[in-house]
Amino acid sequence: xxxxxxxxxLLLSAIWGASFxxxxxxxxxxxxxxxxxxxxxxxxxxxxxxLLRRGLGRxxxxxxxxxxxxxxxxxxxxxxxxxxxxxxxxxxxxxxLNATTxxxxxxxxxxxxxxxxxxxxxxxxxxxxAGVALLxxxxxxxxxxxxxxxxxxxxxxxxxxxxxxxxxxxxxYTKRYLTGLPALLTxxxxxxxxxxxxGLPALLxxxxxxxxxxxxxxxxTLGVMCTAFAYLLFFRLLEQAGPSRALTVTFVVPVFAVVxxxxxxxxxxSASMALCGVLIVCGTALSTGLVALxxxxxxxxxx
Length: 303
Hints:
Distance between the termini: 46 Å
Shape: globular
Strand content: under 5%
Structural class: mainly alpha
Number of helices: 13
Number of strands: 0
Radius of gyration: 20 Å
Number of domains: 1
Largest sheet: none
Helix content: over 70%
């Protein structure tokens, strides 16, 4: 990555690391689906005027179908799934699980785009998903005597995995159908599509009690900073570095998320959780080809 892409990478990691904390604050009062709908709706309202001012309205209408698909896969569905997950597991754990996004991205690219998987990348997939399995076991084992808590933790982890799969599909879909479009068009159009897809479900699931000020501020921050601004950075990074490397932003996101959770939510990080995080990150680095296992050189045969 160049200097500009590296700055975008770190800034995006810090912003998305904070998003888990704000999701937790908002979903407690709004619920997962209304939180996600408000988040993408606010982002769409922020980005649509900029998009129209740049004269991209016709392009928005021309590409509305793929933008709707990307919006649901890359925003609407994952945001709702993470809103559900953080109600049962710490934000740091959900962020660590989010680091598996490049694993799913590599799998989808292999299946869909014929992106070759060598032995090193396959080893990375195995290592990364082993880290997920250990992290899941860590969350379930303390509640082994409480079947309801264990089931809820399993559902939360499954929701995070499904969200990561959606992200992986969205990255390859974007590369195949939206390559070359301006980042503003992809970001704004996808958020508009996500808002359209979540509008009715959000109304049906709207909370009976009016949420408090802190929940509204959390949703506003999610929409403006963690979505509208962040997706401008992300799609620009996607164009500059490609889907596999752009998705590695999830390497750094858990670090910020864990720190924010410790500072502001009183969450604790155990040694086993840190170990699982290391396994996931190392596996992801191998699976995306950023790091490769070195082959031992063959000894020359005697002549």
